[in-house]
Design brief:
heterodimer; A: about 300 residues; alpha/beta; Rossmann fold; 11 helices; about 40% helix; globular; B: about 260 residues; 9 helices; about 75% helix
């Protein structure tokens, strides 16, 4: 087996007494898309900031592309070989799209003619080749996001790190980004992404971890996690009455009572659904496939985060 | 302190690329400001003031203040670049964050910004020097020394500016160093009147200000005599650089690396 692209062991990041990342271990394999999921403040961004060398470690060890990132010289090597798409659209607003890519290429010591060729290629990849001279402030949020993605690829990285790549985008823009990322995945580039969109994670990630309070709650492939933690299907009952509640309790069904809604996790779908909808449903009852979101909410709770 | 590689030049190039986009606007102040000052002081104040005595020689008021205007220009262009300019890039545009996700380290980014601030001083001073020289207010060839001087002075004031950028909590707080540090220098740094007209204690205070020393050198170059004293002035400016450049790096590291 080849060595992992990212290997974290008992990784810790503390801000004063607060442990943002509290001793997590995981590894990202070559060529896979690995997701870090979690509610706000779970420690996702702190984790990847350590990976791309923005934040020093508070403890544990972290190897990226075989290099120890706590050593400055090795970190520099890592920095040459990764592409990072941060949460902010931090493009240079005074420069055109093309210039943004060219300037960024210079940080990686890419020679000028080569930088221009790569930039034009990437503009094609993000379908903006006809707008290379457009000033950044004229772009919509979705287009800026695509430029940030292109910029992260200018050094032809071995590892692409994406921090919430589609947060705040409209559905069209989000799908645009997803298609690009799937294209990159097909080319075999290793991707590490954080997100709190479960749809994004199920669609893109080969494996993922769900974090909360700086710790890893679960790790696995999306489908396995769903099967293990939420079952195959879910019956959602709106405004459940006392009868359904006692039925669920008496039949020992796995469920979550949310007050105005009742979720029943089940594998034997049709028979149970017919029984529930026929006998107990007052305001509506739906049978749906269990999703990663069910797993996520089950594990991290439903209360609001800061 | 970590070794700073020549990669800081990339930051300089980036800022220069942006400058080339906006140069038409950036060119105007150093081009027009000296004309305004010369008109106000040359036509207006000179009649009231007459000649000024500096280092036992008499100079017309306009010859006396022209080097001071140049010095102030060096200070302003570098200081404002690494305060407001750098702060906008650091805080609002998150440019530094993007750069830190590349092979660049923070020290290289900040060094590039400070060198760029010094460059802004050179550009502005060269323009202003050209205009002032057209009026015969600078002697040559000594006057050419003002160009390298504008870089050294720019480096000192850009380092001080960067220190404040690392220290202030929000952009409005720059008013404080401007009010307490920059404006007093502008007024009392031997700019508009000879220092020896001030009481002894005020003179002593003025000699602590870096601009006072810069004005001294500029005047020594522009009017003469250029003697050993200018070396002391230069040393004082170098001292400021040697102090504030590392301080700016340390303070920035504390602010941004989390």
């Amino acid at each position: 087996m080849t060595e992992p692209v990212v290997q974290a062991d008992a990784l810790r990041k503390a801000f004063g007494a607060f442990a943002a990342v509290d001793g997590i271990s995981f590894s990202v394999r070559r060529g896979e898309c690995f997701g870090i999921l979690g509610p706000n403040g779970a420690g996702k961004t702190s984790t990847i900031r350590m990976i791309y060398g923005f934040s020093p470690l508070s403890g544990g060890s972290l190897h990226v592309l075989g290099q120890d990132v706590t050593r400055r010289r090795q970190l520099r090597k890592v920095k040459y070989r990764i592409g990072v798409c941060q949460q902010d659209n931090n493009l240079d607003p005074e420069l055109s799209i093309l210039q943004n890519l060219e300037v960024f290429a210079s940080y990686f010591d890419v020679p000028r003619p080569e930088a221009k060729a790569r930039a034009l290629d990437l503009l094609k990849f993000i379908a903006l080749e006809n707008r290379k001279d457009t000033p950044i402030p004229e772009l919509s949020g979705g287009l800026m996001r695509r430029v940030v993605l292109a910029r992260a690829l200018i050094n032809e990285p071995d590892l692409l790190i994406l921090d919430e790549p589609t947060t705040g985008l409209d559905p069209q823009s989000r799908h645009q980004i997803w298609e690009r990322l799937e294209g990159l995945r097909a080319r075999g580039i290793t991707i590490l992404l954080t997100t709190h969109y479960m749809e994004e994670a199920s669609r893109l990630c080969d494996r993922l971890i769900i974090m909360d309070h700086g710790k890893i709650l679960v790790e696995g492939r999306p489908q396995d996690l769903i099967r293990e933690h939420a079952g195959r299907d879910i019956i959602e009952v709106s405004e459940p009455g006392e009868e359904i509640r006692s039925f669920v309790r008496d039949s020992n069904l796995r469920h979550d009572d949310l007050g105005h809604r009742l979720l029943i996790y089940c594998d034997a779908r049709d028979q149970l659904y017919r029984e529930v909808s026929g006998r107990y449903c007052r305001d509506g009852c739906t049978l749906r496939t269990a999703t990663l979101e069910d797993v996520f909410l089950k594990l991290t709770g439903r209360e609001l985060r800061e | 302190m970590p070794v700073i590689s020549s990669r800081f030049l990339r930051i300089w190039h980036r800022n220069f690329a942006v400058y080339r986009k906006t140069w038409k606007v950036s060119f105007m102040p150093p081009l027009l400001e000296p004309l305004l000052y010369l008109a106000a002081f040359g036509l207006g104040m000179s009649a009231l003031v007459g000649d000024v005595s500096w280092r036992n020689q008499s100079a017309s008021y306009i010859v006396f203040i022209a080097p001071a205007l140049l010095s102030v220009n060096m200070m302003y262009n570098s200081f404002f670049e690494t305060t407001y300019g750098s702060y906008v890039r650091m805080y609002y545009q998150k440019t530094f964050d993007a750069m830190m996700a590349t092979p660049l380290f923070l020290e290289e980014i900040i060094t590039g910004e400070i060198i760029w601030g010094a460059t802004k001083s050179v550009i502005a001073s060269s323009i202003m020097l050209t205009i002032i020289s057209l009026f015969g207010l600078i002697r040559y060839p000594e006057g050419l020394l003002l160009i390298p001087l504008s870089f050294l002075a720019g480096f000192a004031f850009a380092s001080i500016g960067m220190y404040f950028t690392a220290a202030v909590r929000n952009i409005d707080l720059f008013n404080l160093p401007i009010f307490l540090f920059i404006t007093p220098m502008f007024l009392f740094g031997g700019t508009f009147f000879p220092l020896d007209t001030l009481p002894g204690w005020a003179q002593a205070l003025a000699w602590f200000l870096p601009l006072t020393h810069l004005v001294e050198i500029t005047r020594a170059i522009a009017i003469g005599p250029l003697d050993g004293f200018a070396l002391w002035n230069l040393l004082y400016l170098a001292l400021f650089s040697a102090l504030f450049f590392p301080l700016a790096l340390i303070k920035m590291r504390k602010r941004l690396i989390k």
